[in-house]
Design goal:
Number of strands: 0
Low-confidence stretches: 146-154
Largest sheet: none
Number of domains: 2
Strand content: under 5%
Shape: rod-shaped
Helix content: over 70%
Mean pLDDT: 81
């Protein structure tokens, strides 16, 4: 299953539950409506913050190279949009039968309020992802990543017993270079002999011409 979909569904269910609890508490304590709504929104944001932190730490441990890490920002953006649209539609549907839940019209629920839900999921989660990755990276040894990679490769070569083939390849390269040098010398000698014979032949022809004249 796509990684953002289960997150979106879980946060959609959480937002529906939050809206139901909000309606029940506000109807019971109407003078504390603002505090109730703020407290519930903070709890919802904390849930996104915690999950995003675990996502960030898990991804950083699985992929030490930052260039190979997953795009968790897009994952949480899609999860937030999914949570916002689904929860808005469900809350609007519930409001048709349960009057204690506070809901706007369907268009407002799946646009404006859905955008608010998406931001409430996306912003804390992406912030926590960055913090989680930073903590994992700082916990590692402070060594250049490229150096570690190179040493690991050569260490693996030595452990697997590939020292002799490497030396043989180097010797083969030197033999090939020597063969090329010998070939060039042989070609040069042949060329010089041909030129010398050509020169001797020309002198012989010129001498014959002198005798005839």
């Amino acid at each position: 299953m796509t990684t953002w979909l289960p997150r979106g569904l879980i946060f959609a269910a959480g937002m529906v539950l939050l809206r139901l609890v909000q309606g029940a508490l506000i109807n019971t304590y109407p003078t504390s409506a603002g505090m109730i709504s703020l407290a519930l929104v903070i709890l919802f944001g904390i849930a996104a913050l915690v999950w995003g932190f675990f996502d960030g730490t898990a991804d950083a441990r699985a992929n030490p190279d930052p260039d190979r890490r997953r795009d968790l920002a897009m994952r949480w953006l899609l999860a937030g949009l999914t949570a916002g649209v689904i929860s808005g539609a469900v809350v609007w549907l519930i409001s048709l039968f349960y009057q204690n839940v506070y809901a706007e019209g369907l268009i407002s629920e799946i646009t404006a309020l859905a955008s608010f839900t998406a931001l409430l999921v996306f912003l804390p989660a992406t912030l926590a992802v960055a913090v989680g990755r930073l903590l994992v990276d700082r916990g590692r040894r402070d060594e250049p990543r490229r150096k570690e990679w190179q040493s690991d490769v050569f260490e693996a070569v030595r452990e697997e017993g590939y020292e002799e083939p490497v030396e043989e390849v180097a010797m083969a390269g030197r033999r090939e270079e020597s063969w090329r040098q010998d070939s060039r010398e042989a070609v040069r000698e042949v060329h010089e002999k041909v030129q010398q014979r050509k020169y001797d032949l020309e002198r012989r022809i010129d001498g014959d011409d002198d005798v005839k004249s």
